[in-house]
Design brief:
Blueprint (H helix, E strand, L loop, with lengths): L2 E5 L4 H12 L8 E5 L6 H14 L5 E5 L2 H5 L4 E4 L5 H15 L10 H25 L4 E4 L4 H8 L5 E4 L3 H13 L7 E7 L2 E9 L2 E2 L1 H7 L3 H4 L3 H10 L7 H7 L7 H7 L11 H12 L21 H10 L3 E8 L12 E9 L2 E4 L7 H23 L2 H10 L1 H6 L2 H14 L33 H13 L1
Helix pairs in contact: 1-2, 1-14, 4-5, 4-13, 4-18, 5-6, 5-15, 6-15, 10-11, 15-16, 16-18
Length: about 475
């Protein structure tokens, strides 16, 4: 019997999907689910539903709930992380405080001030969970679904835990590509690599034929281009299609959300197409709508087909030896040669009974690696800030963020971060007693004269040559 501990099982709709996937997995029998969250308000609903599914389908499985993380982790074979530290309230600060300062985010869970602060809140819990695993279930595999994926997995890379970060961006993007090029998704051969939410389809083929010419042609047709304006623009200019949608991608780069003109042109699509606060507004709506309700009551108990989420397929491969290929998030370790070895990268992996195995990709096209690095630089500073509790590195992470740096000065960024640290301090124990250093304001009189500073002779000569050239 395999024990699966779900840490953060209060995310009941997503956890319902994962549990049904595992219960419907061939060759995986006798699963014990330990559902952990800080309270049983929601996990009790999930427990009741799961027991109904087990009973009515005659399955050899069991489920129980706890608020004790260590109890859930003890002797686990698999750990699934789905928690969100701070919940909707923390998310509200992530969105509304930056917006007040001029940073307009659509999703706010991966990059930008929102993504950085979600990482700062989540890293202490992530590391505490990992250290518990090292003690209580050292051979277990951690399947991480917590965002921001790259930052959380980068932090996990400092521990001894065996982990992989899972995202469905590749699968859902393949659905879009399939529709654009008119080829069934299952028949597309591809290679995708980069970082989470910014991986690139380096190859797209159907029976040996390159599909990129057909995809490029589609994006020059208005009725196709309009579906994915931001992703389409990056595709047109960088030459490769990316794994993240317009709403997400608009936050990771400086070109689409930094002016009203750009917002109106590229971020006007409905349903997370780039509109301000789209994901926060949706989460708040759902939380308010179902507050106090048992949303799983009356749900059908018939096992549905397995979803596109990778989790159950990884467990199946480890339990049965049936090889499974996926794109996962792990420490790079030189598999992508022009990204840092210690960063979290997303690239092809395969799983069998012996474990999760990395594959060598080589170098990304230089322009793709360059765009990835603009995000990796932010991720590094955010992870260091989260682990060390260094408010100055939190400031610098936001200062290096492509969107933030496109709309705020350094002083404005510092003021925004100071406000966010104060608002979210209840979830940021590593920053206790630490504050952002204020930047003094220097008043410059209109009649001030420049100070006389001795000039290096060599610089004076260079300056003189510059004048002559003009």
């Amino acid at each position: 019997m395999a024990k699966v501990a779900i840490i953060g099982a209060g995310s009941i709709v997503f956890c319902q999907t994962l549990i049904l996937d595992i219960l419907g997995t061939p060759g995986v029998k006798g699963t014990e689910f330990a559902l952990m969250a800080p309270s049983t308000r929601r996990t009790s609903q999930l427990e009741t539903f799961t027991k109904r599914v087990i009973q009515e389908n005659g399955l050899n499985a069991s489920v129980w709930v706890t608020t004790d993380r260590r109890a859930a982790l003890k002797d686990a074979d698999y750990v699934i992380a789905t928690f969100q530290v701070g919940g909707v309230q923390g998310f509200e600060y992530d969105y509304k405080i930056p917006l007040k300062h001029g940073v307009d985010q659509c999703i706010g869970d991966t990059m930008g001030p929102g993504g950085i602060f979600r990482a700062l809140r989540s890293i202490p819990t992530t590391l505490a969970m990992a250290h518990d695993m090292e003690e209580l279930c050292p051979n277990a595999y951690l399947l991480n679904y917590v965002n921001p994926m790259a930052m959380i997995c980068w932090a996990l890379g400092t521990t001894k835990v065996k982990f992989v970060g899972l995202c469905h961006g590749v699968q859902t993007t393949l659905d879009l590509i399939s529709g654009y090029v008119g080829v069934p998704k299952e028949e597309i051969d591809f290679l995708a690599a980069g970082i989470n939410h910014m991986a690139w389809f380096l190859k797209l083929e159907h029976k040996g034929q390159d599909l990129y010419p057909r995809l490029r042609a589609r994006f020059e047709e208005p009725e196709y281009y309009v579906n994915e304006k931001v992703r389409g623009e990056v595709f047109r200019h960088f030459g490769y299609f990316m794994t993240e949608s317009t709403g997400h991608l608009s936050e990771y780069v400086p070109w689409f959300r930094s002016t009203e003109r750009a917002m109106a042109l590229y971020c006007d699509e409905p349903s997370f197409g780039g509109e301000s606060g789209a994901y926060y507004n949706w989460c708040k709506y759902v939380a308010d709508k179902y507050e106090g309700q048992d949303i799983l009551a009356g749900q059908p108990t018939t096992l549905p087909p397995r979803s596109v989420e990778y989790g159950s397929y990884i467990i199946e491969a480890l339990e049965t030896g049936k090889t499974f290929k996926l794109n996962g998030n792990v420490i790079n370790e030189g598999m992508i040669t022009n990204l840092p070895a210690d960063c979290c990268a997303e690239y092809p992996l395969f799983v069998d009974r012996t474990g999760i195995h990395k594959t060598f990709v080589g170098a990304l096209p230089s322009q793709c690696a360059a765009l990835n690095m603009t995000n990796i630089n932010v991720q590094r500073l955010a992870v260091e800030a989260g682990i060390e509790g260094d408010p100055e590195k939190a400031v610098l992470a936001c200062a290096m963020d492509p969107l933030t740096s496109a709309v705020l000065t350094l002083k404005e960024t510092r003021e925004m971060v100071a406000e966010m640290l104060e608002a979210e301090k209840q979830w940021l124990p590593q920053f206790e007693g630490k504050t952002v250093k204020p930047t003094p304001t220097i008043s410059i009189p209109k009649d001030v004269k420049r100070a006389h500073v001795p000039i290096d002779p060599a610089l004076a000569i260079a300056a003189r040559f510059g004048e002559l050239a003009r």
